[in-house]
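Chapter review. Work through the record for Nicotinate/nicotinamide phosphoribosyltransferase domain-containing protein before attempting the end-of-chapter questions.
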Amino acid sequence: FENYVQNSDFFASDNLVFGSGGGLLQKFDRDTMKFAIKCSYVYIEGRGGVSVAKDPVTDRGKRNKPGRLKLIKDKNQKYVTVSSINDKDIYDDKNVNDELVTVFENGKILKEYTFDEIRKNCEIDLDQVDGMTTL
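Structure tokens for Nicotinate/nicotinamide phosphoribosyltransferase domain-containing protein:
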């Protein structure tokens, strides 16, 4: 590394990324909570909204829901993700409250949280999150 830095005319601090794999200190990654962010819907100027879905035949566990999504509470107060495509009746129900809040959209911050608000939001009952299901 030192040799690279001393002999490179193209060095910039944002050109390097350091990391470690293999869980050297602790095993914590997106698979720990079975979490990943995936595209499910795009708006194309002149065409409108388009549903997007990943559905690999080699691993059904990696597929995602197509369409616009809502996070709702079911009758047992458990969080459930519903899709405008797969769960249209529930998604369109005006009596169903979307628990998600739009924070950032089209380059604009719509909602800011204080550190105290973030801490309070982290105090949710983990039983509501554990084993999150989809309809």
